[in-house]
Amino acid sequence: KYNANIWQFNLKQSLKPEPLITSIKYNSFPKYSPDGKHIAFVSNRKGKSSVWLYDIDSKSQTEIIQIANADLTLPVWDQQGENLLISSRGETGYQCYQLSISTRSFETLSEIQGQHFGCVYGASGEIYAISREPNEPSYLFKLKGSNLTRLTNFSVNQVALTNNDKVVYSTPDSNGIFLMKDNGESINLAPDYKGSWSVHWVVRDNYLYFARFQQAAQSNGEIAKPGLYQIDLTSLEQNFVSAELPSAIGNTIDVDPLHQSILLVKTDSVEMNLYHAKLNENLK
Q1: Number of C-alpha atoms within 13 angstroms, CB side, residue 118?
Q2: Are 19 and 248 a contacting pair, CB within 8 Å?
Q3: pLDDT, tens digit (0-9, with 9 covering 90-100), for 168-188
Q4: Per-residue b/e over 130-158, b at no fewer than 16 CB within 10 Å?
Q5: Angle at 152 between CA 110 and CA 77, to 5 degrees
Q6: Dist. CA 123–CA 48, nearest whole Å
Q7: Strand ranges (E), 78-165
Q8: Residue among 193, 60, 32, 160 at smallest CA distance from 168
Q9: More confident site: 219 or 217
Q10: Rounded CA gap, 41 and 162, in Å?
Q11: Model pTM?
C-alpha cells in the first residue's frame, strides 16, 4: 500500500508544511489555477487515477474527470483557468485530453497523431507534447494550428513553458534541467540535477523551482545544500528557497501565482508484504 498526500507551506511566513489534500490513497500532480483559488490534482481514491479539483476557500474536493480503463496524470491549466490538458495512459496507449472546467466535457487532441503525453499550453496558442511511441525516443514537439514541429532528437520526460514561451525541459538520459534558446540550443540550468530524480521541478512565470536532494559543488566553488531552489530564467541567478523536500514520485512540486505558497507531495506511509513459496511444491 502506497500513500501520498499534498502538503502546503507559506514561504513568507516560514511555516512548516501542513497536509492540505489528503486521503488514504495516492494524491499527486498538484497544479494551482492561474488565479490561485483552485488546485487540480490526481488521486486514485476511487479506482483508477482521476483528476480532482480542490477549492482553497471552501476546502472542498470534487472529482472532475474519470475515464474508464485509463490512468490520468499531469493536469495543466490554460492561462484563463477555463480548461485543463490531461495526460492519459490506457488500453489504447498514451494520449492527451482537453477538459472544460465549467461543463466537465472533454475531448482528445485529434490534431496530434500517435501516442503522446505531458501536453502543456503555450502562451501564443501552441500545444507542446512528448511523443510516446514504442521503441522510440520520447521526442518533444510543438503543435501550432495544423503544423507539427519536432523540437528534439532525444528523449524528454517533462516540458514546461515560461510566461514568454521559453521552453524548459528535462531528459531521462542526462543530468540537468534545460532552457531551450531561440536557435534550438540549450542551457543547462542545474547540471547536478540527477536524471534519476525524475521530474521534481516546476516553472512558474519566469522562474524555475527544483528539488536538490543532495549537496553539490557549484561553479563558483560553493557547496549547495539539499532543499528547494529557485532560478531566475532571465539572470540565471540561483537562490535557496527552503529545506523542505518532496518525498513521493511523479510531479511533486507546484508554486502559487504569487510565489508565496508551495505544494509538495509527501509519502506518508508505505506498507509492504513479502511472500515466499517453494516452486517444487504445489502450494497456494
Answers
A1: 25
A2: no
A3: 999 998 999 999 988 778 999
A4: bbbeeeebbbbbbbeeeeeeeebeebbbb
A5: 50
A6: 32
A7: 83-90, 93-100, 106-108, 116-121, 127-131, 140-144, 147-150, 158-161
A8: 160
A9: 217
A10: 21
A11: 0.90
